[in-house]
Amino acid sequence: MVVGTIKVIIFGAGGMLGSDLCKVFNDAISFTRNEVDITNRQLMAAVLRENMPDIVINAAAFTNVNRAEEESELAFEVNGYAPGYIAEECSQIGSKLIHYSTDYVFDGTKQEYIESDNTNPINVYGRSKLLGEQQIASKTDDFIIIRTSWLFGLNGGNFVKTMLELSEKMDTVKVVNDQFGKPTYTADLANKTLEIINLESGIYHITNEGICSWYEFASEVIDNSSPCSSEEFVTKAKRPRYSVLKNTKTSSMRPWRESVQDYLKNLKEQSK
């Protein structure tokens, strides 16, 4: 239970976002991937029917964008079909579903995107996450899909940690300066989730405020980053040039730079 007498289940509790959600929803019934794999439809359904939650928060996802190109079947199963299984079960037992999607459902041809803009993903990860959105919307009427972007948090690998590690090993760290988005601290996102769980069903864009390139993001963290183009830094998965999510439905979260500084302080405390 959490939030008064509301019973909450969290899937993906061991992940970067999931671990912060467990801190905010501190009385929730939580399951890591090892405990409940959401692609195991029978087990997932049994857990929901046994506990009969008011709200199900799905933070489980296949998040490695490059690896998704090589393991597309798994990416679509975890990010696409499994959320549909959860949504169908939620509909049958009367639970509200909170699910997280991504800025990568867009192609990057616009400089910013609102919740109602047309989607057009350009990589497997984005296509798998869009399928998840579509599956949820087709299986239940009681849902909140939170699109977010460029996540960083204490529990798990992320861009900030990668930059800190590379900075110690290399004289100069090359980072692309022609892809733009909004960095988002998972602790802030978890708190915002609690704030909006009672809002009407639909899609919400939730990020920290402020737009930057990956290079500008890196420069907030390390002092030996160097800008380069996407053409110079080729990755398996194509990335949208602009994946800026504009929030038109709720109050704004704090600026990303403030969140990064808070995160770095907490990271230092954690390593003591």
Strand content: 15-25%
Strand tally: 12
General shape: globular
The CATH architecture of the domain at 8-158 and 183-208 and 245-252 can be given as 3-Layer(aba) Sandwich
Distance between the termini: 33 Å
- What is the CATH T-level topology of the domain at 8-158 and 183-208 and 245-252? Rossmann fold
Q: What is the CATH homologous superfamily assignment of the domain at 8-158 and 183-208 and 245-252?
A: NAD(P)-binding Rossmann-like Domain
Radius of gyration from the alpha-carbon trace, in angstroms: 18 Å
User: Secondary-structure element sequence?
Assistant: EHEHEHHEHEEHEEEHEEHEH
Strand order of the largest sheet: 2-1-3-4-5-10
Describe it for me?
This protein is an alpha/beta fold. It has a domain of about 180 residues: 3-Layer(aba) Sandwich (Rossmann fold). Helices cover about 40% and strands about 15% of the residues. It contains 9 helices and 12 strands. A 6-stranded parallel β-sheet has the order 2-1-3-4-5-10, with helices on both faces. The chain has a two-stranded parallel ribbon with strand order 6-9. It has a two-stranded parallel sheet with strand order 7-12. Helix 1 links the parallel strand 1 and strand 2. It is globular. About 45% of the residues are buried.
